[in-house]
Amino acid sequence: MIKRIECLRKKLDTLGVDAIYISSRTNHRYFTKFDNEDGFLLITKEKAFAFEDFRYDEIAQKLLDGVYTVLDPKKRFDVINSEGISALGVEDRSMSVSDYQALKTKVNAEVKGIGGTITDMREIKDEWEIEQIAKAQEITDRAFAHILGIISTDITENDVAAELEYFMRKNGAEDKSFETISINGAKTSLPHGVPENVKLQKGFLTMDFGATVNGYHSDMTRTVCIGKADSEMKKLYNTVLEAQLAGLACLKAGVNTKDADKVARDIIYKEYEGYFGHSLGHSVGLEIHEMPALSPNCDRILVPGNIVTVEPGIYIPSKYGTRIEDLVVIRENGITNLTKSPKELIEI
């Protein structure tokens, strides 16, 4: 916590503010390591205040003692006014209009947006953060191994999603990363299709899911085949796999994000032009979608500590689709792949 606070303090002069007021749930967790959807933080050049209501006061006093002064949220405007703050930085990209208006009317300081200052900090994960994401991914891999023994035409898409989520919670996840995708047959042409209470049938089954540990997300996708895949299905699957492996192989610090996307996209478009409509990947952390993205529209250079997904797919409307996704840490000379589940086509 202290290192993150100090890092933020070093940015105050450049931003032209005396303090930063944090109201977003995600950034509150980043600077405190505990979750409170109704908490607020105030970080000045010399002090740090955490405003936590009665429901969270006891845990906040224990976790934040010695780092933050913990106070009731009702006192936050008085504290801002008493600290001699003339310019107050706020998260203008996430703050609600009501919070902004309250600050404008109740504090004496000029209120200034800080843009992506904190989200930019969060792009580079430290080793503790990487460890949490690795733990989340390990649970996710185990859930995939578990579900392979359950998949049959006797269960539904909803059953698959529920079983994956139950297994992850039973094995150490605090929550799922996002709404689990488990779609079968023609629905696999929908990149973000929604599972339904319909029995599984022969054909592709795509599962996109993840766990959270200490607020940090994992994300993986595997497509399997119920029954035997025909030659056309195998060709489609193997094209996605080739693109995914090529995308993984090109990643390291210094690589441009749009170039990584192009490596995989060129392989797919040789045979299936126009059928890979989303980006190659996105960053993952306290939120499931962070920056930078491996996208033709993102012109960024990868650095050590970025964590990104690599998830090419091919989607033939009203027929079927396939996606394969791993989660990797960018290193100086390559990657650490956190995803251990097999990627060769599994026929059940």
- Architecture of the largest domain, according to CATH? Alpha-Beta Complex
What class do helices, strands and sheet pairing give? alpha+beta
**Any idea how many domains?**
2
Number of helices: 11
Report the span from N to C terminus: 47 Å
What spatial form do the alpha-carbon principal axes imply? elongated
- What portion of residues is helical? 25-40%
Strand/helix succession: HHEHEEHEHEHEHHHEEEEEEHHEEEEEEE
Structural write-up:
- The chain is an alpha+beta fold.
- The protein has two domains: 2-122, Creatinase/prolidase N-terminal domain (Creatine Amidinohydrolase, Chain A, domain 1, 3-Layer(aba) Sandwich), CATH 3.40.350; 127-337, Creatinase/methionine aminopeptidase superfamily (Creatine Amidinohydrolase), CATH 3.90.230.10.
- 36% of the residues lie in helices and 23% in strands.
- The strands form six sheets. The chain has a six-stranded mixed β-sheet, sandwiched between helices. Strands 7-10-11 form a three-stranded antiparallel β-sheet. Strands 8-9-12 form a three-stranded antiparallel β-sheet, with helices on one face.
- Helix 10 runs antiparallel to helix 11.
- The chain is elongated.
- It starts with a helix and ends in an 11-residue tail after the last strand.
